[in-house]
What we know:
The chain contains ten helices and twelve strands.
Amino acid sequence: MVGRVPTPSSCSCLVCHPDPQYAELPAVKAVSQHGWSTLWVAGSLDFAYTVGVYHTFGQPELVMFGLQGEDMAGWLNTAVELGRDKGWPEPETPFDGVIEGFETQVRNVHPSWYRALFGTALSFYRGVAVPFRQLVWPARNGRWPWEDEATPSSRARQAFAWLPVAEHPEGAWRLVGEFGDKFPFPVGPDAWALTTRSVLDGSRPVATVAFDQGGYDILDERGHNADDLCLAFLGDLVRRYPQLRECADLADGQVATASIDGDGRTVTGWTRAHLTPADRRTSKRAWTLAEPA
């Protein structure tokens, strides 16, 4: 552990530089009263991060990925209290005291993740990107996610945020990092969508896009009768088919049908309609049967 670092004299945050229009923001109020705040961001995989640690202690903010959001918020608070009371951990050095029965360690987060993940922190520090460290947890067998013996789940659930986004392994977190706050849909790029393997491999074009109860069906001309239905990340489909952005404003309970050019593949427009009760029933049944591609 290393000792405390004085609060930076040049801290740019909204506590050091009050602005009446932001005075009632929860993060500002929490940091003013308690020294820091912890935010839980829900998604297909949750993450949580601190705001105010840099202001109060001059230490990097902390982020944690892939476990239950409420639990991660509690563990981050424990990590801050541990640093405050006993000294702050050096990066890449395992330490006890956060998750009972398991060591944790911190790694420096690459700046290419900041805008995608830490919007509230950027606002709190008035656009200044303060440093972040990732609180990394091991698999149940004690292996770290970068080790060969780690469980696939422990590797997939945690972002490797110490890597640049462009070097991160493919998957949900890579998509979150790539799209950042520019993803046009009301759900994140790591949200599951119902599709077909033929759409994924490009052998059949997208024919319909439906949005219902927060989920997207992105199907070829066979619809729910396809024999290769599967689940895929919405961001992966948008990356493969940029024209899907034109369906980002679908209202709940709407379906868009593509108009295809003479080449059989190029989308020239979309015709919108309301989903029928039969559409909803077949979609619900397909979601229960489909598995990740």
